[in-house]
Amino acid sequence: MKKHHHNEDEIENEIENITDEKSSDENQETETKTNEELTSLQEENQKLKDELLRALAESENIKKRCAAEIEKTNKYAISSFAKDLLGVADNLDRALSAAQNDAGDDAKALLEGVELTKKELTHVFEKFGITKMESLGKPFDPNFHQVIQQVSDSTKPAGTIVTELQTGYMINGRILREAMVVVSKE
């Protein structure tokens, strides 16, 4: 019986060893799975962080582009209105020229009124970034001038503006209306 008991102990030890090995294998397998899951989660976490940073950067870029577009729109929104007012400025200049040629007392009063009106219009133009282009005596530039006529003038180099028929204007550094000019030729 002792032998039998001894065999039972050995068998029990064998079973425990097999169970321990199996348990150890399962633990290693579980640990491997856990490490793989952890690595996978870390990679996914990094990927999500990258996507978030890209989304934030894109959001900032959109914000900057929108702000620039709003600024540009605000700066140039009055361009159409300003172009219409240029005709008023031209008419005031013509009235000033006509009134200066008349020597009567009534003409002096009219001249003074037109000068004040012209001065006020110029002030409003300046307030909104509208400036007159100075063209006389300068070289012709197709970006700013429209040639209406060429005349022979030996006192000036070819391509020099000798007469301005219509004043050109800029709005915040951008062309609003080209100047209509007469240029010299050889």
Care to describe what's here?
The protein is 65% helix and 17% strand. It has 186 residues and is of the alpha+beta class. The chain has 3 domains: 1-76; 78-128; 131-186, Nucleotide Exchange Factor Grpe, Chain A, domain 2 (Roll). The longest helix has 75 residues, at 2-76. The protein is rod-shaped. The model has no long low-confidence stretch (mean pLDDT 85).
Shape: rod-shaped
Structural class: alpha+beta
- Assembly annotation: single chain
Number of domains: 3
- Helix count, DSSP H or I runs of 4 or more residues: 3
Radius of gyration: 44 Å
Low-confidence stretches: none
Order of neighbouring strands in the sheet with most strands = 1-4-5
For the termini, the CA-CA separation is 137 Å
Order of helices and strands, N to C? HHHEEEEEE
**What is the helix fraction of residues, given as a range?**
55-70%
Q: How many strands?
A: 6
Q: Report the sheet-strand fraction.
A: 15-25%
Average per-residue pLDDT, rounded, comes to: 85
- Give a quick account of the main beta sheet: strands, pairing sense, barrel closure: 3 strands, antiparallel
Keywords:
186 residues; alpha+beta; Nucleotide Exchange Factor Grpe, Chain A, domain 2; 3 domains; 6 strands; 17% strand; rod-shaped
